[in-house]
Amino acid sequence: MGYFFIGEGIMLLSVFIVTFLMMRFLDRRPFSDLGFSLKGRGRDILYGFLMSVLIYAIGHTNLFRRKMNYDARICSGTFVAYASQ
Asked: pTM for the full model?
């Protein structure tokens, strides 16, 4: 499992490096033109965080109320719920 995250991290880093090099030397544009700036986005980040907490709370409540095989340690790490039959 750890090798998966290492491989994904290396691929993500390589994409950013290639994008940076292409933007810098071919397009002659700054990397900030891609829109990755967080300046002035505090409210949006807070709203996104609160929405994700709300969605998780609704999902956990739904599982708990339906008396499914609910284990918060399992459900918080995955989107898979195993129904007890």
From this structure: 0.48
